[in-house]
Structure formats: structure tokens, C-alpha cells
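Tutorial handout. Part one gives the primary structure; part two gives the three-dimensional structure as C-alpha cells.
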Amino acid sequence: MENYFDGIDGNIDPNQYFLTIEEDEEDEKRQAELNARLLKTQLHVHIGLQTESRIRKPQSKRKRSTKKRLLEYVDDDGNVCTLTPKKTFWYQYYILNGNNLDAKALNKFRRRFRLPYQQFNELLQELEESERFRRWKKGTKCCFGEPSSPMSLLVLGALRYLGRGWTFDDIEESTAISEETHRQFFHIFIDYCSTNLFNKHVIMPSTADEARTHIHDFAIGGLPGCVSSTDATHIAMGCCAYQLRHLHKGFKLNSPSRTYNLSCNHRRRILYTTSGHPARWNDKTLQRFDKFMTGIYSGTLLDDVAFQLDDTNNNGERIKVQYQGAWNIVDNGYMHWSTCIPPMKLPVLRCDTRWSEWIESMRKDVECCFGIIKGRFRILKSPIRTRSIESVDKIWKTCCALHNWLLDIDGLDKEWQCGVLSSDWEGQLGDFDTTVVPFAIQRMLLATPAYQSFDASGMGSGDDIVDDNIQNNTTIAGRGLNAISTTHVNVVRQLSHNLFRQKLIKHFHLNFEDNTIIWPRHKKRRII
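Part two.
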């Protein structure tokens, strides 16, 4: 401090003071540069040591915390041997001896695993080429240095889990592969099938050319322009999270469940299905989240579909009226859009009753589709034991993809050319062979049921329920246009629901009188 003062009067020397401050600042800069160089040198040395240690020291294998539980068996000499996956019956019979299976064994293979043997090999090859399953490819080893489990057995286990509702513990007994390995593989399997396989086999039609074969079956059945039947089903969940139980507890099942809205054609081919929704949602809410139904109603899908409906003018002459757009068959739980046509709740005229009963029979194709899927894949009949709702949705989409694939394999997706004419079975009303006559034609041609013609007053029935003539009513209440143009094309989605349904009834009634209504059928049965 005394360097700052002069020796005479004790005052601070400014020159000496500022010179000292500059020297201190230079010392601090030199020290900072020295520290930075030292830190950089230490960092390079640390990285070099890490790299050297990484090169010199090979990665050690992981060790199991507990000893792996192995399946064992006793051979003919009384020795206890370890049962490996390649010694199991599934591997020896289905994998090694698969090319030597006879017709009876191949039928049993399909019944047990829900896929023909040839398509099983195609699926296996497709999975082996996918990077999602690289940990189970041939020649790979697990983290413990052991050979990976055969992917063929894992695929068989996943198909048995879906087809017959087995547990992973049951599959372990048949494959000698741990249930945890089966569980991990199954989740990757359904993730792949619910995306790649689903997009390959479940194709939503968007144009008239794509929907032509779907519309054909309904057109020969007296329902031109119809593309599909739509309904919802519930799939129970066995391990639903507690915070989601209230939302997924519906009125149809006692257990929590997911609901899916599905559209299929008359050949039971799935055209579209929604992802899962809570079981508390009704059909009207599901309709809002159905891209296929909302797309048809908004005009973004199938707006180029063109069809004709028979009608009569004011003079009673038969005319053809042009329509544009497609529509679906639904039940009365959905919103009354003009593109969603349900049967009538309280029909008055006989033609209304006849049309409602016919469309109820045609709508059973979606109910049959639900029954086929749940019968073929038993995992859907009992509560699904996965813990996440995403896994339940993936299982549903996987089953839908496999269902459509099996229709292609069996040739049941080809356009149906055969059918049963209603005029072939008229004769004496009620004298039908119920083994060959479709029920829809029986109920359409039989006399009016007793509960509809019962008269407790003794005055007889009135004229309002006897007359079958349909008037050209153009003022039917409902949202949308309330008039039909006979000279221009009528857009279905712009019409009112009630008016368009009355025009469908009129078309069906005129064709029924001409005996041109046909019940679509895959193969024409021989009548004995």
C-alpha cells in the first residue's frame, strides 16, 4: 500500500496507483490462460484414457441374477436331459418336418394356429426381414451370449395365443422358451401386425373403382349405392387400470371393455375399423370418430359413386332417378344421416315392413363378421390380459388383418355372382325347404305375422295398413333437401334422411313386384 503514497505529505501517487492495477490485471489474465490450458490438457488425457480402456478392455457378458429355469426330461436310458427349443415337438414336427405334412396334418395345423402352413412361412419370412425382430434373427445371440430363440417357435406361440387364448406359461411348456421371451416377442408382433399387416389387408375404399365389388353384392340385393354394414362391438379387458375402469365400464359387459366401430361388406370383409374407444360411448359418439362414416357424409370419400333408383312420376310411369354418393346400413342407434340408413322402427305399410325385414337380414353380415372373428381368435371372447389399452387395440387390429387375409386365402372375397331370386321360392306361401331357402326370403314372402294382423275390435283392419302404394312424397320432414330431382343428379349426403329412405323403399317395392330381388350368395346351391 505504501507504494501508492509519496514520501512528502502522505498523498496517493496516481501514476503509481494505476500502474499497479494494470500489473495485477495482467497477472490475472495470465493465470486464467494457464488454467484454461491445464483444463484442456486434463480433458484430452481423460478422453484418451477412456478410449484406451474401451479398446483394451472387451465388454464383459452380463450375468444372470438368478439361475435360468430349464425344462428337463428323462430319456430312454434314464438320464436327465435339458429340453431345448429345437428338441420340442413343435419344432421337430412343424418346423423340421413341415414340408412332409399330409393334407390331414395341414388341416390340423390351420385349426391349431389359424393360418395355413404356406402363409405361416410367408409371415415368418416377412418378420425375419423386418428390423423390429433383429434380436431373434438366425445367428444372433442374446445379452448373455446364448443363441437367440427360434423365431418360428415364437410366431407359432403368438398365433396360438391369439387363436386359442393360451397364456404365455402354456406356450412355454410347448416351446421350451421362457414366458417372458414370448411376452416380449408378442408385443412387438402385434405392433407389427397392427400397422404393416393391417395396412396391407384392411383397405378403406375411397373411390368408386375401389368400392365397385363391395357395392355389387348390395345392388343385386335391391340396395343400390350401399357399400357396407356398420356396427360396434365390445372387447373385454382383464387388467384395466383403476383410473380407467369407470370410463371403460359400459352397459353391455360387466367388466371394463373397449368398443370398436366396424364396417364390412356383404362378404364379411372388413373395410374399416376404428381404434378402441371407452365402452361408455354410444353409437352416436362412435359415429363422430369413424373416419369412414364421416368421410362419406362429408363427401371426401366415395363421392364419385353413381347409381340409379327406380321411381314413378306423377302419371305412374316408371322412371330412373340418378343419385351420387354412397351410404351404409346401420341400426337405429346411430345419428340419422342420409348416408346411414337403418330399418324402420314402426313400419305401417306392408312394403315398409318387407323392406325393413330385408335390410335387417342384410345387416346381419356385420354381426356374422363379429362372430367369425371372435370364434376364430378366442382371445377376443375372454377378457384380454394385457395391461395397456394400446395393446388391446393392437390385438384387435391384428385379428382384423388376419381375418381379411384368411378371406383372400380361401377365395371368399371374390365378387359373388350367384344368388337366390325371390320368385324362385314363391308357390304356396310357407311351403319352403328351410335347408336351402334363405331366411330373409322366407320372412319376406310369408304372410303377415299374427301379432301384426291381430284385431281385438272385431271391426277389421283399416285401409291405411292394407294399401301398398307409396306416394311421391317430397315434403318429408328432416334435415337436408326435401325434394328429389328427376332430371339432375341427386347427391345423397345433401338429402334428408327420411326422404332418401322412402326412395329406397320405393325402389325395393317396385323390384320386388318384378321378382328381381336376389339374395347374394357365394355359391349356387343345388336344389333336390
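Part three, for discussion. The domain at 80-201 is CATH 1.10.472 (Cyclin A; domain 1). Residues 52-57, 420-434, 464-478 have pLDDT under 50 and may be disordered.
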